[in-house]
Amino acid sequence: AGQAMWGGRFSDKPDELMQAINVSIGFDKRLALQDLAGSRAHCAMLRKAGVISSEDADAILGGLETIGREIAAGTFPFRDEYEDIHMNVEARLRELIGSAAGRLHTARSRNDQVAVDFRMWVREACDRTVGLLQGLQRALLAQAEAHADALMPGFTHLQPAQPVTFGHHMLAYVEMFGRDASRFADARKRMNESPLGAAALAGSPFPIDRHMTAEALGFDRPTANSLDSVSDRDFALESLAAGSICAIHLSRLAEEIVIWMTPQFGFVKLSDAFTTGSSIMPQKKNPDAAELIRAKAGRLMGAFTQLATVMKGLPLTYSKDMQEDKVPTFEAFDALELSLRAMTGMVADLAPNRERMAAAAGSGFSTATDLADWLVRELGLPFRDAHHVTGAAVKRAEQLGCELPDLPLSELQALDGRITQGIYDVLTPAASAASRKSYGGTAPDQVRAQVRRWKEILA
Ligand code: ARG
Fold first, then answer.
1. Band of the pLDDT at 1, cuts 50, 70, 90?
2. Of the residues 54, 182, 278, 363, which is catalytic?
3. Which of 2, 48, 235, 380 is 20 to 30 A (C-alpha) from 23?
4. C-beta neighbour count of 452 within 10 angstroms
């Protein structure tokens, strides 16, 4: 078919390789609905501004409606020879309504067209992601509430540090995903300006009303600089940055689930719904979903790097390089949305083994800090001295092959004669966790208070 759009200037057809590298319809068809919305708003505005006649506007809007139905029905002919979604829609419109179709592109360029389409797509993706994040937070909150007092070891360096509660651990992720949601919401606010009407790069000589199209498309206002409008892909980069951080959080939770699932830890079980077996080893139950979520973070970070690399040296304004903005962004959000859904399912499916976690919480001398604190509080020892005495107690327990609560009082008194029976009150993991009542601490009551706070936020 050659290239009818610029046939005036060109007499020869493009080389096959030119077409192959140029064509984007295979992926930018995902902008079809946004493209139609942008065209409807542009058309209505052109009519109101008196740039096109009412009859032409009606014909165009009717044709766009037909195209919308064809897209919904899956019968729209996406054709490579028309290169991208914008020219595919326009070519189809011409087939449907004839030459009036050519008036739609008045005071518009594909440069502002793709900018507005893509912004709307990214905006919707951010909104969907916020919804998915809230769903994940709710699943975590349900676990936190059910296991507000379930003891588990808290780790630093993946070494037992101090007893915490499973609910508290779940709430740590509720906080992270809350920040992620706020990053997407924040990016959305910044991106919510309409570039439509910037035209090719310099604005338009027609009496267009950019505020009208901005409002019709749900933007807060039009962008204020036409050059920036067609050059800017910050909105995509920012959402990919937010997506990367979110994927990192998902990956960390996935990693913990993988660790907790090992028979050596045995902290949680996943049902058959979120595990897979092995084709050779009959005993296996593998946490594949968690592993894949862990790995998909690579896609998000890769997508950010990919687009940042495309953009970093581009002179103003539009360059065709920017057509490469879409694939990484689409793929990143596909991966993120799937990861969020799978993680939500997996968190709801998690069955913590409370006995096993509690036993682990009491091992590894995890209440050593509580012992030292008791020496400070009850005997008035400087913390450094208390640390020393406690270290000796741990060493003695290790020699005897027992945990701190099992050390005979005589052993403790050999280290400091003033130690009394009362010290045993602070040496159990339950007492240790319950004592950490500071705001945001791991005590079950604090956990329940934070669950209530988050439930109100999410209500
Ligand atoms: N398909 C192009 C893209 O995605 C649309 C803009 C093309 N503009 C141009 N002047 N060639 O970036």
1. very low
2. 278
3. 235
4. 12
Strand-pair category, 151-156 with 159-165: antiparallel
Our answer to whether residue 157 is catalytic in this structure is: yes
H or E segment at 319? none
Q: Tell how far the Cα of 435 is from the centroid of ligand 1, in angstroms.
A: 62
pLDDT in tens, 293-336: 999 999 999 999 999 999 999 999 999 999 999 999 999 999 99
Q: Other CB atoms closer than 10 Å to residue 137's CB: what's the count?
A: 27
Based on the residue annotation, tell me whether 86 is a catalytic residue of this protein: no
Determine whether the shortest distance from the Cβ of 111 to ligand 1 is under 6 A: yes
What's the 321 CA to ligand 1 centre distance in angstroms? 9
Terminal CA-to-CA distance of the chain, rounded, Å? Answer: 56
Which protein residue has the closest C-alpha to ligand 1 atom 3? Answer: 323
Determine the Cα–Cα distance for residues 135 and 145; give it in Å rounded to an integer: 15
Q: Which two tokens stand for residue 7?
A: 């046939």
Q: Is the CB of 25 under 6 A from ligand 1?
A: no
Nearest residue to 99 via CA among 60, 64, 138: 60
Say how far apart CA 425 and CA 138 lie, in whole Å: 35
* Per-residue pLDDT reduced to its tens digit, 233-242: 999 999 999 9
Instruction: Convert the pLDDT of each residue in 150-186 to its tens digit.
Output: 999 999 999 999 999 999 999 999 999 999 999 999 9
Dist. CA 374–CA 309, nearest whole Å: 56
